[in-house]
Structure formats: structure tokens, C-alpha cells
Amino acid sequence: MSLAPATLPDPLTAFLAADAKPSAARQSVMRILDAVRSHLGMDVAFASEFRDDQRILRYLSTRDPDFPIKAGESHPLDESYCKRILEGRLPELIIDSADYPAATELAVTKAIPIGSHLNVPLRLRDGTLYGSFCALSHQPDFTLTDRDLCTLRAFAALAVDQIEQQLDDNRTRDAMRDRIDRAIERETMTLVYQPIRALADGALAGVEALARFDDPDKRSPSVWFAEATEVGRGVELELIAVRQAVRALPYLPRGLYMAFNVAPETLLAPDFAAALADVPEGRLVIEVTEHSRAEDLPALRAALAPLRGRCRLAIDDVGAGYSGLHRILELEPDIIKLDISLTRHIDTDAARRALAHSMVDFAAGIGCRIVAEGIETMGERDAVRDLGIDFGQGYALGRPMPLVAIQQLALGVGDTAEPATPAAPLKRHAAA
Ligand code: G
Ligand code: MN
Known about the structure:
With 432 residues, the chain is α/β, with parallel strands linked by helices. It has helices spanning 11-20, 24-40, 81-86, 101-104, 107-111, 146-186, 221-230, 234-248, 264-268, 270-275, 297-304, 325-331, 340-343, 350-365, 378-386, 403-411; strands at residues 44-51, 54-62, 74-76, 93-94, 116-123, 129-137, 190-198, 204-212, 257-262, 284-288, 311-318, 335-338, 369-372, 391-392. The strands form 2 sheets. An 8-stranded mixed beta barrel has the order 7-8-9-10-11-12-13-14, surrounded by 4 helices. Strands 3-2-1-6-5-4 form a 6-stranded antiparallel beta sheet. A hairpin with a 5-residue loop joins strand 7 and strand 8 (204-212). Helix 2 runs antiparallel to helix 6 and helix 7 (221-230) crosses helix 8. The structure holds guanosine-5'-monophosphate (G) and manganese (II) ion. Residues 194, 210, 221, 261, 289, 316-317, 340, 373-376, 394-395, 400 line the site of guanosine-5'-monophosphate (G).
């Protein structure tokens, strides 16, 4: 069955969609403009930015659907009221443009047309000139006074705070986009591997490949993936991890499996199946993670179907709230990974034990194995084992480590042969 690429946003579409939702700061500026325009009884209010001899109309509120200038458009500053006001050639309060030759000689006066005009400069906190804050009407308005200009100035001060916020947001977003672009272009991600052990005897059963980023600001990998998703490149970043895992597979000690994480969007990407085209049978486990509720389960099933012979499927983070029981029923995984939030203090928490116990029954009923994640103490390890859970993963059973350390672990040599927190008695897997 074919995938459904039509439901898959390409990075650009996703990026545009993300940008299409106005930020809180933008919405505030729009509310401020609406308020001042209707308070002053003017036709139009806008905030503009001056840049490179152009005036860019950034925010526009108008009750005139035919207003000839649209938000986002730019015009030469030389042909605007704004510049003449800054130069002192026009006043900030214009009751009737016909009174000022410096206004009537401007083409916009007739084109828009402009009858009355209130305009004050927008200065940022550091004093730099950002642009102008303006209200105008097509007809002269002889009721306008200096008090109205003061009102406009007060609203402009409110708007400038929000504009600064928007500029900050843009800078943050640009930096985020640059960071993600660089990580993808230079492939700066590395993988570490966390042991997954049989709880009965501690034998290594497999590893989970986990992405790590070289990051002076110490953002966690999940923040990296969330940011990549935010700028529309989450799938690409995950695919880099998938390809690295596939490349590392020949070096993983025999008898061990390798699990890796993908979001549903990645599973649906055509490049995903291509990345797994040549993998040997039975050694990979696809861990599907989920951090949003909206997903197309039939499409996921269809994308997984051709891979099922070669790879096993695990549902990650079960019990965390996102990976629900319905999802498990639909996707028919081979493995359920119990979320760290269920494992935590399971040895002293009867409610968590009861829930995990029901999962053991459920898993047995649907022919599924369970891996308990996030085991940090021997008490937690013993508790999940006593509940009949076969496999475990967590700091107490082994930290994420480079592949060579997994090789040493499998061989029983080197500093990493013992987990950081000893999980004795642990035996090596006979076949490893
Ligand atoms: O969502 P997923 O289960 O794929 O997340 C795995 C993450 O959990 C990795 O970043 C890994 O470093 C972390 N992790 C693994 N074992 C433990 C543990 O015992 N405790 C905690 N707090 N985190 C763990
Ligand atoms: Mn996982």
C-alpha cells in the first residue's frame, strides 16, 4: 500500500504553517491598533518599520477593505509622510492635509487619499528608531486635537513593548533555525547506546540508540528534536539518527538488537523506508514515540506493514499519557516500553505496581514483550522483575554509552563492563 504523502507537510509548508499562526506579541499589536483606531474614529491605524530607505507596513488595522496598502508591503521613505515628519517638514498632527504643501505634493495624499493624519515615531528601548505609529482618515477631521496625538503616543508606547517582544521572538527563532540547519548540514549529531537487559539474569538483550548533540548550552536531545520540529525539520533530523543507527548496526555485538526512536511523521516519510532498505532481518526495533494526539493510525499501519518482516515495533513511553491503549491495539507492537513515570518508585508504590501488573496481563494477552524504562535503583529493578516484566533499561542497568563501550560490555572487558550503579548479579549473554 502506498504512503500518504499528501498528509505529510514538506518542511517549507510546515514552516509556513508554523509562521501562519500569529504570535501573541503580533496579536497584541493588532489589538492596540484596533483600539486606538476606533477610539480616535479614524479609518486606518498602522505600525511601520523603517529599513534601508523603505517603510515596511508591519501591522495594519483598517475599517476600509479597499485600503490600497497591505501589511508587509514596503514603499520608499522619501515618498512618505513619516520622513517629512521626522525632518520637521510636516507636523505629527495633521487635521487637513490640504493645509500643507509638503503633504499635498506627496502622491499618497491623493492615492489613498489622506485627509487627516496622526503620526509618532516608534523608538525601541535602546533609543533606536524602529519606525512609525500612525492613524489616518480619508477625510479631514476638524475635531482632532493635541490630546488625540497624546493618546496615539500612549498607544504607541504599548505597541513598542510588544514589537520588541516580537523582534526578540524573531531573533530566537532565527537562532533556532540556524542551529538546526547547522546540525543537519554538518551532521553534528552522535549516537550513544543504552543497554536493555533481561531482568531474570541481567543478560544484555539489546540497546537503544539515543541521539546526543554537541551543545554548549546543554539543551537536551528532546529539546533539539522539538526545535527541529518547530522549524519544520524534525523528520530530517530523526532520519539522520536512523541512518547512523543503520550504519552502526554491523558493529553491534551479535545477538543484540538495536532500537531507535522515530516520531510518527518520520515513519510516514518516504525516506524512512529507504533508510531501512538493506537492513538484516530481526535486528532492528523501531520505537514509535508520540508527542501529539492527532495522528493517522491507518496510515501508520500501512507505512509499517512492509517493514514488519525485518524490524520489530515498539511503542515507546506507554503510560506517559500519549501512547494510549487504543494506539497499541491498532499498531500491534512486538514490544511495549513502559514509561519512566511508571517505573519511578514502583517498589514503594502499590498503585504503580497495580498498573504495571495490568500491563503485564495485557501484553501477555496480545503477545507482546515489555521493557520497563528508567530503572534507577535495584529496588525498582526487583519490583518490575517480580511483576513478571522480562526486560529493563535505565541508569541502574547501564547508562547510554558509545558503541565501543557496548562492545566491551558484551565481551566483559574494559571500564564499562559494569554499569555505573552495579546491577549485580549480572551475567553476560551467553551468545554475545
Ligand atoms: O523517550 P525515550 O524512552 O526514548 O527516552 C530515553 C531518554 O531517557 C534518553 O535521553 C536517556 O538518556 C534517558 N534515560 C535513560 N535511562 C534513564 C533513567 O534511568 N533515568 C532517567 N531519568 N533518564 C533515563
Ligand atoms: Mn525510546
